[in-house]
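Hi,

Apologies if this is the wrong queue. I'm a grad student, and the batch job for ABC transporter ATP-binding protein from Ktedonosporobacter rubrisoli produced an output file that my downstream script rejects. I'm not sure whether the problem is my script or the file. Here is the sequence I used:
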Amino acid sequence: MKADEQRTRQDDELGQDIAHQAPSLRLAISRNRPEEPAGRAAIRIEGLVRRFAGFTAVDNLQLHIPYGEIYGFLGSNGAGKTTTIKMLVGLLEPDSGKAWIAGHNMWAEPVAAKAALGYVADRSILYERLSGREFLGFLGQVRGLSLAETEERTAHLLALLELSEYAERLCGSYSLGMKRKLALAGALLHQPQVLILDEPFNGLDPRSTRHLKDLLLQLAQAGTAIMLSTHDLAIAEEICQRVGIIHRGKLLAEGSATELRQLARASNLEAVFLNLTNRQPEEASI
Ligand SMILES: Nc1ncnc2c1ncn2[C@@H]1O[C@H](COP(=O)(O)OP(=O)(O)OP(=O)(O)O)[C@@H](O)[C@H]1O
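Support response: The file is valid. Your script probably expects a header line. Output copied below for reference.
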């Protein structure tokens, strides 16, 4: 048997092991982390539940993400990532449970919570008849920035995201990747303490992907809390301090990629992920 095949088989067997231990895995890992008081978490979710016509899409979810951390939210198609994010950013009312952004309850103090938040949806919604610069100018007004601040931040972000040469073109004429980058510029305009990104790497070319990874690492280093959902396990492994794996609306495991790999004795996050979620193979479609 070749070394690669042997490692894959070992990963599979060990992964099946942790699949059975899944509920205790998270507890074991969280004991290894210095405790972050929940009240000081940048993003805090307690007991979040959302049902659609009797089907439970998000099932009693708990999450605490501190400032300065990049948290990867992983799950197969339909696992409940977008539903969780929509409840967290105030777009979808939970059936029960609560969510806080920078200490503000999203549903009781939505203005304060949203002021601290930058959010990019999985599908970018832009005003197609505005130019890139006009779009950011409009968002600056919505965010209550002065004209000078808006102009300065707009120029900085357009340059940072390599969009300056397209700034006067209508958003409707942008490519998918350019739209994603402009949406990100919009989310960063008011320098939020908390950034929530649903599939931020979708549609980006390798150069823009590298650029975004570096930008997120810099923002986290400066203290921004970042939660991102992704299907790209290599990216999660590279830039996320912790990852949470959601499946059928429940958090199966949570920890750093290294902790998850060590605990599972698996060679990579993909092996951990596939084996945890393969108990329902028809859903393991990441
Ligand atoms: N408005 C809705 N009405 C009915 N069911 C919904 C609605 N929104 C989401 N769902 C269901 O909830 C489940 C979770 O969906 P969600 O979009 O949160 O998954 P996801 O993890 O983001 O998936 P993907 O990776 O494919 O984007 C799915 O079964 C989906 O069909």
